[in-house]
Structure formats: structure tokens, C-alpha cells
Amino acid sequence: MPVFFLPSQCITPPTVSVTGEFLRHLRNSLRIKVGETILVTDGEDRRYRTVITSITKQSMTGRVIEIIPRPPRRAPSLILGQSLVKGEKMGWVIQKTTELGVQTIIPIQSRQSIVRLKADRVEAQIVRWQRIAREAAQQSEQWRVPTIARPRSLLSCVTQPPDRSLSLILTERLDRLATLSSIQLPPLLEGSILVLVGPEGGWTEEEVMSAQEAGAIPITLGTKILRAETAAILVMGILQYRLGELG
Asked: Which domains, and CATH codes, for the chain?
């Protein structure tokens, strides 16, 4: 069952009241009916199993019949630093890595990125990416919607990592690289793993060196040269498997 993320003011147990765009989505697109049961959340570690009691043109009202707390965390949080990729690929990366449980996505303006965001389009683009993340989080029953950060440079990303984080930069054609299957992962549940994935043209040598100097560990996925969007999804899947969240 999908989990619908609602603004906190919509959820006042034992009542849930939906208006605006959320109402149109539930009533018109999903055709939710009176008597149906749905799961809603405000993204604050609780889900509310709710039976719909009333639907009008102005609102949809439900009664909370069960409050489900979030299970304790079992693994570090995942952060994806994804270099901007062209066309719909960035949205696809956000959608699929959200389904795999990434908590934060940082768009990176790297030197070989084909995409160059215009300053007057940044806010609108972030809103679009956040919508994609929310829809993917609902479909895959995540407990929270990933945060989409403002685009930044690689240097800014690697020099300002979260506390107690492991930083990895995905690259190729370097000798004796560690692999994602062999790298030691942080044991701390409150820690995080930051993975940096390059654009279609890959990282420059200078970017990789800068990341290493800032503490990032170069890793490889093996001998295959993958598309940027494929690599991002694969690396998150492997990490979640190793962390016990998949498989």
C-alpha cells in the first residue's frame, strides 16, 4: 500500500483532513472512495492507518484507526552526490535511488557535466526534483522523503561532509582501487555514507585528486564502464544489500 506524505497540519489524530493538490491527487487520480483505508504520514517517524469517512469537492476526511511507529534505524544513512546529467536522466536517478532508500541527494555541478543550470531556473528545478522524490517515496513506502540539496561544486560537497561520514568517489581506470563489495562500512547507526558519482564524461583527474585530498576514497564497480545513471542506482543497491536493507 502506498504511503501518502501530507503536510503536518493535515494530520491531527484522530482526524486526517486533506485539501488542495493532495485532495485532487487522491480523489481524481487515485479515485479513493469513502470506506477505503490508506496510509498517511507527515514524515516524522509515524504512519497513520486511516479509513476515509467523507469526500467533498473541498476536502477529504478520514479517521485514524492505527498509529504505526517507525522501526529503529539499522544502518547508516545514504547520501548521493550525483553530477548533473542531461535530459530526464537526473529525474530518473532521483526516482530510483529514492526507491532504494537514499536519504539525501546532492546535485553536483562538475567540470564535465553537460548540463549547466541557469540561476533563474534552480528553484523551479529543485521543486520538480523534490516532487519526483516524494512520489517515489510514496510508491516504495519510505518513512521519509529524501532531501534534495541545492546544486553545489564537488569541492564544496567533499569539504563539508556530514559528521561521522564515509565518503566514496566512484571512478575507473585507476590501479588497485577498492571495490564497493570490499570497502569497510561505518558501524555507527548515526553515521552516513556519501557516494559521489560523476557525469556522462566522468570526473577529471583533478576532481578525483581533490576529493581524495579531502578524505574521499576512490572505489570501482569493476571492469564495466557504466552510464552515470546506471552507476548511481547500482551503487545504492549494493550498499543497501551490504547494510542488510535489501536481499
From this structure: 3-69 (2.40.240.20), 77-242 (3.40.1280.10)
